[in-house]
Structures are given as C-alpha cells and as structure tokens.
Design brief:
GO molecular function: protein transmembrane transporter activity
Radius of gyration: 29 Å
Protein name: Preprotein translocase subunit SecE
Main location: membrane
Strand content: under 5%
InterPro entries: SecE_bac (IPR005807), SecE_sf (IPR038379), Translocase_SecE/Sec61-g (IPR001901)
Organism: [Clostridium] aminophilum
Mean pLDDT: 88
C-alpha cells in the first residue's frame, strides 16, 4: 500500500473567522471626513425639508384659494 498523501479535506474557515477577516479590510474614515460628510448630509436634509415644506404650503394655499 502506497501513501496517497493527505486525503483529508482542507479545514473550512468558520463564519466568524471570515467575518473577522472582512472586518479587518475596512478602511475607516478619519474624523475630518466624517464631520464633513455628516455636515453635508444634515445641510441637504434641511434644504430638502424646507423645499418640501414650501411646496406643501403653496399647494395648501392654492387648494384653499381654488375652493
């Protein structure tokens, strides 16, 4: 009988090992980037809210005027 080598299957990585490996690939932004992008999102949200409020007021006024 000859040695056919290692016939066992390679050990699969567990889910948690894979998750940890992927988590370590994340490049976290620095504080300045987070502050800048958060400020942009807040400003855009406020602007959009004001636009929607203005349109809503205009539509309500127009409907009251028409009725």
């Amino acid at each position: 009988m000859g040695d056919t080598g290692n016939t066992s299957k390679p050990k699969k990585k567990s889910y948690w090992d894979g998750l940890k490996a992927e988590f370590n690939k994340i490049i976290w932004p620095d504080r300045d980037t987070v502050v800048s992008e958060t400020s942009s999102v807040v400003a855009a949200s406020i602007a959009l809210g004001l636009i929607i409020a203005g349109l809503d007021t205009l539509i309500v006024w127009a409907l009251h005027f028409a009725i």
